What we know:
The chain has 2 domains: about 5-170, Glutaredoxin (3-Layer(aba) Sandwich); about 175-280, no CATH class. It has helices at about 5-15, 40-50, 65-70, 75-80, 115-120, 155-170, 175-195, 200-210, 215-245, 250-265, 265-280, and strands at about 50-55, 85-90, 95-100, 100-105, 135-140, 145-150. With about 280 residues, it is an alpha+beta fold. The strands form 2 sheets. It has a 4-stranded mixed β-sheet, with helices on both faces. A two-stranded antiparallel ribbon has the order 3-4. A hairpin with a 5-residue loop joins strand 5 and strand 6. It is built from 11 helices and 6 strands. The protein starts with a helix and ends with a helix.
Amino acid sequence: MNRWVLAMGILASVTTGAQEAPARKDYPQDGVYWATNWWEGFEEARLRNVPIHVAILEDNSEPCAPLAAVYADKKFIEASRMWVNLPSNPGTHEIDAEVKGRRVSVCERFWNVPCLAHSANVKLVASWKNIDRPPVSIFTKAGLDVLGRVDGKAGAADLIKAQEKVLAKWPGHRLSAGEWLEAKPIWDEGMARFKMGNWRQSIDAFARLKKMSPDRAKEIGQLGWDQVDVEGDILWGEGFKMSADLKKAEEAKKLLRRVVKDFSPLPSAKKAQQTLDALAAHGH
């Protein structure tokens, strides 16, 4: 089992509540990785800088039936790694799988998300026009601008060709799903520290992204730095304002020194140091 399949199995286990990929032979060990919900999918697409593929299907539909084979096609699975994939399908398709002697319920059609997830997405595609006859594959981005679509029966080659047209015009560096699996835990760590106000640890986590080889990972790390720097700027502004009052000079210097320490090497730390140098030059 290659590293990608192993990682996907881990993600599938987390989503379904299992500890590893289900062992039953009739349940796939690999496949299109489906995002659990729209909001997480949009955020992932933003960070990876990739478009979104929304698969709109329904049960007991003769035209929709062939899509099961398409989503299991190895070439389509490989192509899907450069997209965020969101399923919209009412109904349930749960089967029991055995994992380390424990029975778990999983979706047979969308292998790594629970049926509750793809059913909930049905309401969110209602605003799109002409979706009354699934299957429809919509290609979009986080702003929900439709970039392309494929209606009705379509083979793996048809969908791949349509997706390649969208990708050909997609600007900037992108992260594949496999690369995202490596980058996401670091991003999540940085954001968790950010929300706690642990600026130093947040900066250090994002710095690890900036050292990764994919260019988009470096850009994501910079996004994190920029977000932390906004907080540093706020604190620097407070210190700068206080520094104009001689009675608050010591308090201002204390705050500015903290910005230098906690936010190095961000621009806000450099501005704080410049303010400290200016205070020293004026004998404060």
